[in-house]
Amino acid sequence: MTASRQGWERDLLAAIDDRAAELLDLAGALIRIPSENPPGDDPAVSDFIAGYLDDRGLRAVRHDGGDGRTNVLATYPGTGRGRSGRHLALAGHADVVPVGDRARWDFDPFAGDVVDGWLRGRGASDMKAGLAGVLFVTALLAEMRVPLGGPLTFVSVADEETGGTRGVPRIAADGLLDGVTGAVIAEPSGPGHPTIGQKGSCQFELRITGRPGHGSLSPLSGVSANVKAARAIMALQALFDITPDIPAELAEIIAVSKEYVRIHEPEDFGAAFDHVTINIGTVHGGTAINVVADTCVITVDCRVPFGVRRDDVLAEARRLLAEAGVEAELTERGARSEANWTPPTDPVVATLVGAVRELVDPEGHGVLQWATSDARWFRQAGIPVLQYGPADLPTIHGFNERAWAGQVVDAAKVYALTALRYLDTVTGAGATSDAAPHGKGTN
Question: Among residues 398, 438, 408, which one has the least CA distance to residue 17?
Answer without folding.
Answer: 408
